[in-house]
Write a structure and sequence with these properties.
Radius of gyration: 59 Å
Structural class: mainly alpha
Strand order of the largest sheet: 6-5-7
Shape: rod-shaped
């Protein structure tokens, strides 16, 4: 038989689990065949319940059935691979991110296209066709593929939730409307969605408005922070300059006082040195005079002594002796006292002015208004009155 003339299509020899040609095929007691690996994975998943079923016809088996390779079917599949097939391989539709997955596919799951509200399962195109074959006549209610089916089925009547009860604010099925929700204010799920959509729109508008306000506030705060940084930089530079000038002024005053003390020292020392020189000369003269008088007193010539006595015994002139106004000692305390007073007054002024500067800086560079801490602060607290909503206005 030539290649491509095999009288069967690939669909007839495909595994309904992996949708590929059967690999190492095995047949269940119900007659359906699967890949050895695919059906083994299904059996492993069913070990939790101890009830094993066929993925196609749902016939159950207890205990777990043994799997044996179908050699004849395996030969037919190998022949099909060698000779080719008359039909195309089944379409593969891998699931995209966010798609509802087929609950029957094993391995790489495919995107589901329908969900059965009775089976509570979702099926890809291939398994949807198989589901319809097993349940003909629309005995099962199908809906577009949706996730979390158990949350969309009434737990009491196992029907799809299609009605919204305004009274109880919950979704119910048609049988619930005739039972426990009889007489309640009910609408279709679509109508309930429309009402809630309007409320959602209002909430969304408020949220967007709040978002706009917050974004605007964020932008203003960022600009304020940038402006604050610039003004702080300028203020620091000015403050450094002023304090530097103040320090220089104090240094200049210190130098002037030091120079004044040194000048007074130089003047006093100069005056004392002049007096010392005069005193030393007078002392030298007095020593010489004393030596002459001592020598005259020991002369043995009486006539010579008497003739020269008047000229020799002239006392030294008191008017020629300089006065010596010497103070007992120099007192540093006399100078330290006014300088210490200046220091204390300067520190007091700096302390008072520092408090004023601190309060000014706190007030000027505060981005946010602080909360009032006392009743007095509350009375001076700037209140920004919010506009009165129209819904709260009334006429007297």
């Amino acid at each position: 038989m030539a290649k491509g003339t095999f009288p069967f299509s690939q669909d007839q020899f495909s595994c309904s689990v992996c949708l590929d040609l059967l690999k190492n095929p095995v047949a269940l007691l119900c007659g359906h065949s699967y890949c050895m690996g695919c059906i083994k994975n299904c059996r492993d998943q069913e070990d939790r319940t101890g009830i094993y079923s066929c993925p196609q016809c749902r016939q159950t088996f207890t205990p777990r059935p043994d799997l044996h390779r179908n050699t004849i079917l395996a030969d037919v599949v190998e022949k099909l691979k060698e000779t080719g097939c008359s039909g195309p391989p089944p379409a593969h539709s891998p699931a995209d991110p966010g798609d509802v997955l087929c609950d029957v596919c094993t391995g790489r799951q495919r995107g589901a296209m329908k969900s059965c509200l009775m089976c509570l399962a979702s099926y890809c195109q291939t398994h949807h066709n198989l589901h319809n074959e097993l349940h003909p006549g629309h005995r099962h209610e199908l809906a577009d593929a949706t996730g979390q089916l158990q949350h969309k089925i009434c737990c009491t009547h196992h029907k799809l939730l299609k009605v919204y009860c305004r009274t109880d604010q919950k979704c119910v099925c048609y049988l619930c409307v005739m039972d426990e929700h009889r007489g309640h204010d009910t609408v279709s799920a679509a109508a309930g969605r429309t009402e809630k959509q309007k409320q959602l729109g209002a909430t969304q508008t408020q949220t967007q408005q709040r978002l706009h306000e917050r974004e605007k506030g964020l932008q203003e705060l960022r600009q304020a922070v940038e402006s604050l940084g610039s003004s702080v930089h300028t203020a620091v530079q000015d403050t450094d300059r002023i304090f530097t000038e103040l320090i220089r002024s104090i240094e200049r005053t210190r130098s002037e006082v030091t120079e004044l003390i040194r000048a007074q020292e130089r003047a006093a020392v100069s005056q004392a040195e002049g007096l010392l020189e005069r005193l030393e000369k007078e002392i030298t003269e007095l020593k010489r005079r004393d030596a002459e008088l001592n020598q005259f007193s020991h002369t043995e010539d009486h006539i010579h002594f008497l003739q020269n006595f008047q000229s020799v015994c002239v006392p030294p002139g008191a008017g020629h002796s300089p006065s010596i106004p010497v103070r007992p000692h120099f007192s540093p305390e006399a100078v330290r006292r006014p300088v210490s007073g200046l220091k204390e007054r300067l520190e007091d002024v700096c302390k008072k002015e520092s408090i004023k500067i601190s309060m000014t800086v706190t007030e000027v560079y505060s981005l946010l208004t602080p909360e009032p801490r006392s009743r007095a602060e509350l009375l001076h607290y700037p209140v920004k009155r919010a506009p009165i909503p129209k819904s709260h206005m009334y006429t007297v």
